[in-house]
Every structure is written in C-alpha cells, then in structure tokens.
Please model this.
Amino acid sequence: MRAISALFIGILFGLGLTISGMINPAKIIAFLDIAGSWDPSLLVVMAAALAVSFVGYRIVLARRAPLFGAAFQLPTKTTIDRPLIVGSALFGVGWGLAGLCPGPAISAAALGNGDIYVFLIALAAGMLLKDGLPAKRA
Amino acid sequence: MEIAGFTPLSAAIGGALIGAAAVLLMALNGRVAGVSGIVAGVMAPLRGEGGADFSWRLAFVVGLVLAPLLASLVKGEIVAVSTPHPVWMMAIGGLLVGYGTRLGSGCTSGHGVCGVARLSTRSLAATATFMATAIATVFFVNRVLGF
Model:
C-alpha cells in the first residue's frame, strides 16, 4: 500500500512541478536572476505549497499515526550545525549553476533534454560521494 | 526591477499540488516529502543497504517521472524545458546539488517546503542559505561572467 500511495503522490508532486513550470531550468534561473528581468513565479509556488502544507501538516500530525504505518517519522535534529549550512550553501551554488534541484531534475528525466541527463548522472555521483559507495563497509 | 515571464496562476495551482502531495505523504506513509532523501534512498542498495523503504521511494520517483509525460499527453505536446547554462555547469551543478543536499540533509522540498511548514529552525536556516548562495551564483554567472 505504501508503494501504491507513493506512486500516486509522486505523480501529484510531479504534476505540481510541471504545472508551475518548476521543471524548467530557464524559469528557475529567471527567478534567481534578481538583477535581470525577474520572474517571481517560484515565490508563489513556495507560498502556495507552504500554505497547504502548513495547514495540512497540523491536521495530519494531530492524529496518532499515518494510515499505512506505525508512526510519523520526522527529523529529530534541532541544532543548526556546520554540515547543514555548508551542505545547503553548496546545494545553492549547484542550483544556481544548473537551474535544477533534485525533484524537477527527476521529473524532467523523460523529456529528452540531454543536459538534464548530465545533471542527473552528476547528481547521483555527488550523492554517492557523500554517502559512500562500498558495499563492504558494514 | 523589470518583471518578466511571471505566471502567478499556474504557480499557485502547481504549488498547492506540491503542498498537497507533501501532506498526503505524511498522512498516508508518515514520511517527509524530501526528494533528495528519497533519491538517496533509492540508491541505497548500491551501498549494500536495503530496507523496507526502498519500494515506496522508488514508486515516488517513478511517479515524478510519469507526471510530465501525463501532462504532455493531455496537452498534446511534450512539456518544454530549456537549460540556459552550458553543459559543464550542469555537470558541476549536479555534483554540488548531490553532495550538498546529502551533507545538508535536504533540498527545496524537504527543507524548503516540508521543514519550513513545520517551522523547523534547521530548515529555515537551510532554506535561507541555499536561496542566498543560489541568487549569488546566478548573479555571478549571468551578470559578472555574462552567460
């Protein structure tokens, strides 16, 4: 059930990215380029997503457990540490260079743009560089 | 400042769908809709780690890929995407996004939407940081280097 729900939720999330234009790197860069002709669409996307999730989370998290699981799994860390800030700073630089963050990059994977494949391969490499590849580690 | 290409209605509709997806993933599966974490989880078997979370994460990723194809089908033409920066920037950008989101425990969805919606101070700090460095990077690339 968890996989079936995740499939439909993934489609919903991807439709949100598609309809809002957020899968298009040109539109992301037009938002980040505040000194050029500026496209504020991303701000509206964030505001709308936050309005729905802010209210929705409050309703959902007041319940005892998710429908298909024993408990809600939320991040437990609360301290702002160096990895959080350094990692986010590096992510921002990459986001600005490519105009893509992970969700839109995955969603745009089947649209036939070669540059996006280059980004996705590099994305996987960057993640593995941090998380480690060797299966023999444990 | 000159405003161009602003699409507020589709941005609001799309944003609301993203928020609804985040709420549903919490309500049904009890999980944060953080795409970088989900993608890293899909690659976990490469590291010899398996686990119960692999299938729902893979299903979510498949859903993400299917969505613009469905939209293209409805629209009658492939959804257009364009990449204004050169391919070497896409490669370096991908590496930095991959490494940075793992080090920083999240991206635009996990920190920017789900974390900020919970008013997490870590996510607020992360979102302010990546927004600032992304804007600075585009300023440098587009306005200083002239790409």
Summary: Chain A has one domain: 2-131. Chain A is about 65% helix and 0% strand. Chain A touches chain B through 125 residues (CB under 8 Å).
